[in-house]
Amino acid sequence: MAERGRPRGFDADAALDRAIEVFWRHGYEGASLADLTTAMGINRPSMYAAFGNKEDLFRRAVARYAEADMAYAREALAQPTARAVIETFLRTNADALTRPDRPAGCLSVQGGLAGGSDNGHIAQFLADSRAAGEKALADRLSQAATEGDLPSDADPVALARYVMVVSEGNAVHAAAGATRAALQATVNIALKAI
Amino acid sequence: MAERGRPRGFDADAALDRAIEVFWRHGYEGASLADLTTAMGINRPSMYAAFGNKEDLFRRAVARYAEADMAYAREALAQPTARAVIETFLRTNADALTRPDRPAGCLSVQGGLAGGSDNGHIAQFLADSRAAGEKALADRLSQAATEGDLPSDADPVALARYVMVVSEGNAVHAAAGATRAALQATVNIALKAI
DNA sequence: TTGATTCAGTACCGAGCGGTACAGAACAGC
DNA sequence: GCTGTTCTGTACCGCTCGGTACTGAATCAA
């Protein structure tokens, strides 16, 4: 497959990484195309040719974010015991929420919570994305339950929801400027409920 | 003080209540003046004469929200024991987040988390508002500690932060459509850490 | 070299944004 | 009556929004 025509003058993945940061910092509606294209180092028509439109760009950004910036979550799920899964997830999550080389908080939360009139499906999309993570955790904890790795009275679905609630609450705190130590101290307390 | 001039044709407090719901559902930047004034039943100049501008209206809305819709928090602080304070707060909070006659979630979280370029001070204002609530809870728990009502190794500041993290995480879940029962089940688990 | 194809860049579109000028309507005191 | 004052309503302001037409430039195959 030979490439024809003028070659693209920018790296699409690198541009997407810049877009992630803008969406992360400003949210979906708070990120204007001027913000985005300036950060991406390209102009508007190039962005439209490469990604479709603003919403498509956002979905691509969230997908790449989930794959790259949330790799720690998949590693946590691979831990041998339910306790290790939860603790690893919450600890690495707290670190990810306060990475000094990244915006504070979580794109999936900051991207957009409210949404009623027009872009309600953006909030829905992010909620579905978070729910998928919660379900993966619930499935992992269900497996632990069948393996006898969890107290018999434990509810894997409720437990997964609790872990995600702590994670999302920490994301809200991180977005407000909480320190890594503060988030880890919260994790210390949260783990006592497991 | 006699009133001169044409009397106002609407109830400012009632209009503010309508504005609260719009901000609650759409967030600060997602709520347009057209949305707001339509819901308030007034036109633009009336709103500007009564409240100043959009940001002033939002601050007034948040203040009224804190006073009316979050009265349960002050009642929780008045409980006799630290345990009762925390449990009452989390339970009434979970109910408030899922009131059928109100938007799901919490205005203070939904109003705006991200904010970088222009309206960053809106996110900051809301973060300060939440921090004030967290400090009030920490003060109450400090008092409990001096009264011997809390384990000697407990950190009131960290504990207050944990409670607020659970509350805010539940707010994120509520905004995504979680049921009241789900939130209360999360509270059940969260309380085991106390 | 030529023609086809694809990207880059400028300049622009209609629509909606927050905010306001201005004219008229409704009240008070005189 | 009239006058001063305050509210209502229409119509408008400049600006930014997301999105696009169009001209050139850069690369391919032939």
Instruction: Quickly name the level 1 CATH class of the largest domain in chain A.
Output: Mainly Alpha
Number of helices of chain A: 10
Largest interface: A-B, 50 and 50 residues
Number of self-contained structural domains of chain A: 2
What is the overall shape of chain A?
A: elongated
Mind explaining what this structure looks like?
2 copies of one chain form a homodimer. Chain A contains 10 helices and no strands. By secondary structure, the first copy, chain A, is mostly helical. The first copy, chain A, folds into 2 domains: 54 residues, Homeodomain-like (Arc Repressor Mutant, subunit A), CATH 1.10.10; 121 residues, Tetracycline Repressor, domain 2. The model of chain A has no long low-confidence stretch (mean pLDDT 95). The interface between A and B is large, with 50 and 50 residues. The first copy, chain A, binds a DNA duplex (30 and 30 nucleotides) through helix 3.
Please describe the topology of this protein.
The structure is a homodimer of 194-residue chains.
Chain A: H1 12-26, H2 33-40, H3 44-51, H4 54-68, H5 71-77, H6 82-97, H7 107-110, H8 120-146, H9 156-175, H10 180-191
The structure holds a DNA duplex (30 and 30 nucleotides).
Domain HTH tetR-type (chains A, B): 9-69
GO molecular function (chains A, B): DNA binding
Organism (chains A, B): Actinoplanes lutulentus
